Input
Amino acid sequence: MNQPTFALVASDTEEAQTALKRLEARYATVAPEQADVIVALGGDGLMLETLHASIPRGTPIYGVNRGTVGFLMNSFDEENLPERLARAERVTLHPLRMAAWSVDGTHTDALAINEVSLLRLRRQAAHIRIAIDGEVRMEQLVCDGVMVATPAGSTAYNVSAYGPILPMGAPLLALTPISAFRPRRWRGALLPNTARVAFEILDPEKRPVSATADFTEVRDVARIEVHEDTGVSLHLLFDPEHNLQKRIIREQFLP
Output
C-alpha cells in the first residue's frame, strides 16, 4: 500500500500546537502545495478553513480532532499516521454557491460547505420572500432568519435550528427557518440538490438582513441566490471505522 506524502496544518490552540510539534518530530512532511494529503489538527472550524484553502488544488483533507466538537475530524493518535492516511476512505462534497446583492447594489459571490444563512440585523423580524427554481413558494416568511444547508452541514447550525439531518450522499438540501413567526407552523422543506433558491428581502432598509456563507458575511442584503456548485469538489478523508456516514446516522439517535 503506497503511503501518501502529507503536510500538517494546525489551529492556534495549545492542544493543536502540541500535537503539531509531536507529529513534526516523528514524521517526514512536505509543504502543503506538494502534499498528497493535508492533515488538519484542530476542530471543525479549522477543517472548514482548510477545505476552503484546498479548493484551487483539490487536495484531500484528513482532519484530526484537537478541538472541541470535531464532527468532521478523526481521532488523534500519533501511531501509524501514514498507514491511516493510506487506508482512509474519501468523501467528496460539493459546496453551495451564494450570490448576494446588497441594498447599494454591491454583488458578492462566496462558497459555503455547511450552509448559507440569513439573519435579521435589528430588533424587528425579517420579512423574506422565497422562490425555488424561479417560482415563488412563500410570499412572506416572518422570522429571525432562514438557511440552506448541505448534508455535511446539516448536523451543524441547521440541526440547532431544528432542521433535518441529511444522510451523506443524499441528493438533498435542507431549507430551514430560524425562529419562524409566520407561517407559525412552517418547519422548512427538503429540496433536491439541483434546486436554485432565491431569497428576496422585503423592506430591507427597515428590516435589514445579513447573509453568511461559512466565513463570508454580507450585511444589508436585498437578494440572495443559492445553489449547489457541482463544478467544485472538496475531498475529506476518514478512518474506515469512523466514516462520516456512520457519524451522521449516529447523530440522529443522540438524546
In short: The domain at 6-93+233-251 is CATH 3.40.50.10330 (Rossmann fold). The chain has two domains: 6-93+233-251, 96-228. The chain has five helices and 17 strands.
